[in-house]
C-alpha cells in the first residue's frame, strides 16, 4: 500500500513537472511571437513610408475627393507645389479630352506666367490690373530655385510659385522654364490663353481690354519671321536638317501669348527640342528661335507673327532699353501706344501692344500715379 502511494506521488510530480514544462515552452513561444510581430510592424512602417515617399515623387493624382463626381476632375490642383519632375509634369499636362465639347459651363481664363529671377518689384501695379476680375485669370511664377516670394494671403501672387529650376539666358534651360510654366498652367483646364511675362513687364491696358483683345483674336501672338544676316539665318546650323531647314528657320520675341492648342504642341515636343538643344547654343540664342521655328513649321496659320509686348531695341546691344522713373510720363506712353499700326483679325488697327518692358523698380511710383489716367486701371 505504501509502495502504491509512493508510486502515485511520483506520477503526480512527473505530471506536474510536465505541465510546467509545457507552460514554459508556451510562454517562450508567445514571447517570441510577440517579438516577431513587433519587428514586422516596424519594418512594414519603415519600408511602407519609404515606398509611399517614392510613389509620391512619381505619381500625380488629379482628384482629391471621391472620383464619382465630375467636379474632382475639372477643378485645378489645390496647390501649385508638387514633386513631379519635368518628364512627369509634361506627360500629365498633355492629357487631352477626346471629346472637345465640355460637359460643364467653362469660363476661359488667361494664365499670366511670370518668368523671373527673384522678386516682382512691379507687383503693386499688377494688383491694380487684376483687381475685380477674379475667375478670369490665373497666375504662375517661375523664379530662381530657392527664392521664395513673400506675399500676404490677400495678394493675387500669394502661393502662385511653381517648382522651379535654374534658367540661363540664351540657353535651352530658358525654354525648359517656359515649358514648365505652360505645363503647370495647363493642369487647370479652365486656362485657355497663356501669356509669358517677366518681372520687368507692365500691363499697358486694363484687364477688360486685354481679355477681350486676346479671347476674340483668331490668332496667337508670337513673332516668327525670317531674318537674313548674322543675327537671323546666320545662327542656323545645317546639322538641324532635315527636321529644320534654313528656309524654315525663324526668329521672334521670347514674350508670347498662345492658346491651349499651341501650348500643348510646345509642351509635348521632343523632336525639335532635341535639335535645338544640341545645335543652338550661344551665339545662337535658343529662346529667340526654338518656339518661333517649331510653330512656324507645324502651325503657321495660327500665328499673328507679332508680339503683344512692347520692347525698345533702338539703343542697340543684346538687351533692350530699360525705363526708369525719369522716363515715365503721359507723353512717353502716348508715343508707345500710338507709334504704329498692325493687323488684328485682318483689320488694320492702332492697338498693337497690351504689355511693355523693361521697366525698372524705380518706375513703380510714377506708374502708379499715371495708371488710372493712362492705362485705365
UniProtKB/TrEMBL annotation:
GO CC annotation terms, alphabetical: membrane
A GO molecular-function annotation: glycosyltransferase activity
TM region(s), chain numbering: 22-44
Key words of the record: Glycoprotein, Glycosyltransferase, Membrane, Transferase, Transmembrane, Transmembrane helix
Subcellular localization, as worded in the UniProt entry: Membrane
Membrane topology: Single-pass type II membrane protein
Signal peptide per UniProt: none
The protein, known as: Uncharacterized protein
Organism: Carnegiea gigantea
Amino acid at each position: 500500500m505504501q509502495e502504491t502511494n509512493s508510486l502515485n506521488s511520483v506520477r503526480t510530480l512527473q505530471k506536474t513537472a510536465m505541465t510546467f514544462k509545457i507552460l514554459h515552452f508556451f510562454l517562450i513561444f508567445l514571447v517570441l511571437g510577440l517579438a516577431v510581430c513587433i519587428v514586422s510592424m516596424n519594418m512594414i512602417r519603415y519600408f511602407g513610408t519609404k515606398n509611399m515617399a517614392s510613389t509620391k515623387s512619381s505619381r500625380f493624382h488629379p482628384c482629391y475627393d471621391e472620383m464619382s463626381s465630375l467636379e474632382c476632375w475639372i477643378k485645378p490642383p489645390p496647390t501649385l507645389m508638387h514633386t513631379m519632375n519635368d518628364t512627369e509634369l509634361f506627360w500629365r499636362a498633355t492629357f487631352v479630352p477626346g471629346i472637345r465639347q465640355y460637359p460643364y459651363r467653362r469660363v476661359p481664363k488667361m494664365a499670366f506666367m511670370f518668368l523671373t529671377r527673384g522678386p516682382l518689384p512691379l507687383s503693386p501695379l499688377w494688383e491694380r490690373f487684376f483687381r475685380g476680375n477674379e475667375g478670369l485669370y490665373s497666375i504662375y511664377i517661375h523664379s530662381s530655385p530657392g527664392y521664395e516670394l513673400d506675399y500676404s494671403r490677400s495678394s493675387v501672387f500669394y502661393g502662385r510659385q511653381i517648382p522651379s529650376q535654374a534658367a540661363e539666358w540664351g540657353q535651352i534651360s530658358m525654354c525648359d522654364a517656359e515649358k514648365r510654366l505652360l505645363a503647370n498652367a495647363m493642369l487647370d483646364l479652365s486656362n485657355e490663353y497663356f501669356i509669358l511675362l517677366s518681372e520687368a513687364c507692365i500691363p499697358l491696358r486694363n484687364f477688360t481690354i486685354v481679355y477681350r483683345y486676346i479671347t476674340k483674336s483668331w490668332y496667337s501672338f508670337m513673332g516668327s519671321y525670317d531674318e537674313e544676316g548674322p543675327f537671323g539665318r546666320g545662327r542656323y546650323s545645317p546639322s538641324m536638317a532635315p527636321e529644320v531647314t534654313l528656309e524654315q528657320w525663324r526668329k521672334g520675341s521670347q514674350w508670347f501669348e498662345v492658346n491651349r492648342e499651341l501650348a500643348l504642341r510646345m509642351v509635348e515636343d521632343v523632336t525639335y527640342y532635341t535639335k535645338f538643344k544640341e545645335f543652338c547654343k550661344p551665339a545662337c540664342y535658343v529662346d529667340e528661335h526654338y518656339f518661333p521655328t517649331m510653330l512656324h513649321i507645324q502651325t503657321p496659320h495660327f500665328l499673328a507673327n507679332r508680339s503683344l509686348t512692347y520692347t525698345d531695341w533702338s539703343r542697340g546691344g543684346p538687351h533692350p532699353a530699360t525705363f526708369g522713373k525719369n522716363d515715365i510720363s503721359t507723353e512717353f506712353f502716348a508715343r508707345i501706344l500710338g507709334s504704329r499700326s498692325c493687323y488684328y483679325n485682318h483689320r488694320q488697327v492702332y492697338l498693337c501692344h497690351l504689355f511693355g518692358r523693361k521697366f525698372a523698380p524705380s518706375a513703380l511710383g510714377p506708374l502708379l500715379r499715371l495708371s488710372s489716367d493712362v492705362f485705365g486701371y
